[in-house]
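TICKET: design request
STATUS: open
ATTACHED STRUCTURE:
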């Protein structure tokens, strides 16, 4: 049996709609309710062994025997536990996306996702990544909107040497994908921010060392996303993670975290909910373990399209979820706590900012997250020339250089501009993100990153004399999944193939908590409106000009 296509971050497209709990009496494959008998093929291969065992088979066998020798359950299944996906066969058009199976859509080349918890890199690690990209990945390198780096065009024969080089500088691909705890999003300014609510550096490090590769959490119903921040900018998109810890000041207990669970986008988007519980810094590890174990033990394993934590939360509600967490997993009550305060400042950290030690950090916008092997090496060189050894990636596809002496800021900015890294970007270069799209993704219907670059160039030309006082975010997806978070953008575009035409369906007015809006909200679909790639620049220009003409003072796009 061929496993279902599950190439990038999302499940195969299902009917869109609200997230609802299950019908009563249905066997949903919850381990604690109905036992551990696998109810689908994914669950079968996950039950056979620890999926991380495939790492040794890749090193000992497949890298020597070649792509054709790899069994389907490994190449289309367990490889994901090591961050490896087969990439889309070149030349297979978007019309074929939902008609072909995983094997027919797959190339013999791989995408390798490298997990960077908290987006943290040293300049040495960045240089090694650049070298791997140049030597094995045709100089590809994309910054994802989850603080990862993704390389393309990898051959199975080169994987052991790539992993050796990553190991040598303390980088890993372990659980970068698969039904596992994926990369831990962390505030990219943790430890250097001038005035945080709380510095989450130790909590993030504890999560990483305790849980990456931990066999207790290697077989979850589906992917599981975590975020932690203590920044007043609310910079880790906490509303759309399975579990989030958001910095708050408790009036009696001091700084700690507000606990959120059950957020996720995809085709049935749902923002996370607060449990109303305060998590002291020393409780982050046990609370994370408890929430993740609830997902492992009670998550719905029967259908992959219903296997995210948001579906369980829809059935239980936040009160029951908190009760189960306290009674069955922690054995004690958590104190009530306050909600996060309204965001202050821009969560993407672009531009020049004060650190807590007199140095500066500088945030650079890319073009839809795209870098290259050469650009990574140039980034490491420029950062070191500016006296820095530390780089961070953000959940907004941005790059930060930390620890820059004030006198080196200008030279750093000049050195990185030719590589497409901009500290003073135009509004659309700053706030446009795009997913992988048809260039490499097997679920895509349309091209995305090249289109994003074209629209950005067009907007820079056409709107150069127009003042855009508030950021307008443009997010472009290659399919109805939501790797580029279209429902949380001012203008969100969803690639589809309808009636023998490639089009984008438009969502307007979404956004996450920011200085412009107290709470996140999902955009509304503009029914009947379908835009082709050729018409996209005209559409974005028209919407932008209309918004600027019609908005009242200080009105944001979401309020318009
Ligand atoms: Fe994700 Fe884009 Fe691929 Fe769809 S096309 S699965 S949104 S990367």
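STATUS: resolved
RESOLUTION: sequence designed for all positions
ATTACHED SEQUENCE:
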């Amino acid at each position: 049996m061929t496993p279902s296509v599950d190439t990038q971050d999302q499940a195969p497209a299902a009917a869109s709609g609200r997230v609802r709990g299950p019908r009563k009496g249905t066997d949903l494959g919850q381990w604690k309710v109905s036992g551990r008998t696998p109810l689908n093929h994914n669950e079968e291969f996950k039950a056979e062994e620890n999926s991380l065992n495939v790492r040794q088979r890749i090193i000992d066998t497949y890298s020597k025997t070649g792509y054709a020798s790899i069994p389907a359950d490994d190449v289309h299944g367990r490889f994901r536990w090591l961050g490896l996906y087969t990439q889309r066969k070149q030349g297979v058009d978007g019309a074929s996306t939902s008609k072909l199976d995983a094997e027919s859509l797959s190339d013999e080349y791989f995408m390798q996702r490298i997990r960077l918890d908290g987006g943290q890199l040293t300049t040495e690690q960045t240089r090694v990544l650049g070298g791997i990209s140049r030597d094995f990945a045709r100089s590809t390198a994309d910054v994802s909107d989850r603080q990862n780096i993704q390389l393309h065009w990898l051959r199975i024969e080169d994987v052991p040497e790539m992993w050796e080089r990553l190991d040598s500088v303390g980088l890993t691909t372990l659980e970068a994908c698969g039904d596992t705890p994926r990369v831990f999003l962390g505030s990219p300014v943790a430890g250097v921010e001038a005035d945080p609510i709380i510095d989450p550096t130790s909590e993030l490090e504890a999560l990483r060392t305790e849980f990456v590769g931990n066999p207790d959490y290697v077989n979850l119903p589906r992917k599981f996303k975590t975020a932690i921040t203590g920044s007043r900018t609310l910079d880790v998109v906490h509303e759309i993670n399975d579990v989030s810890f958001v910095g708050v000041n408790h009036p009696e207990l001091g700084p700690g975290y507000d606990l959120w669970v059950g957020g996720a986008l995809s085709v049935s988007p749902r923002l996370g909910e607060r449990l109303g519980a305060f998590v002291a810094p020393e409780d982050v590890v046990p609370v994370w373990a408890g929430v993740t174990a609830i997902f492992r033990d009670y998550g719905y394993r029967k259908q992959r399209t219903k296997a995210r934590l948001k579906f369980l939360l829809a059935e239980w509600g936040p009160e029951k979820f908190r009760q189960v967490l306290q009674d069955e997993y922690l054995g004690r009550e958590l104190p009530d706590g306050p909600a996060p305060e309204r965001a202050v400042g821009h969560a993407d950290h672009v531009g020049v900012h004060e650190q807590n030690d007199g140095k500066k950090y500088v945030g650079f916008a890319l073009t839809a997250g795209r870098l290259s092997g050469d650009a990574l090496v140039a980034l490491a060189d420029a950062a070191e020339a500016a006296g820095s050894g530390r780089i961070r990636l953000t959940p907004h596809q941005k790059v930060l250089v930390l620890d820059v002496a004030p006198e080196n800021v200008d030279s750093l900015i000049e050195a990185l501009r030719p590589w497409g890294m901009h500290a003073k970007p135009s509004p659309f270069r700053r706030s446009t993100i795009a997913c992988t799209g048809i260039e490499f993704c097997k679920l895509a219907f349309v091209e995305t990153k090249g289109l994003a670059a074209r629209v950005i160039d067009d907007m820079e030309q056409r709107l150069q004399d127009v003042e855009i006082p508030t950021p307008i975010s443009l997010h472009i997806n290659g399919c109805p999944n939501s790797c580029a978070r279209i429902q949380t953008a001012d203008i969100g575009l969803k690639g589809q193939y309808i009636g023998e035409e490639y089009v984008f369906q438009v969502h307007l007015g979404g956004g996450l908590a920011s200085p412009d809006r107290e709470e996140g909200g999902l955009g509304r679909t503009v029914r009947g409106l379908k835009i082709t790639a050729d018409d996209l620049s005209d559409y974005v220009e028209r919407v932008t000009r209309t918004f600027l003409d019609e908005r009242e003072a200080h009105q944001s796009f979401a309020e318009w």
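CLOSING REMARK: The pocket of iron/sulfur cluster is lined by residues 8-10, 435-437, 441, 443-444, 477-479, 481, 483 (CB under 6 Å). The chain has 15 helices and 20 strands.
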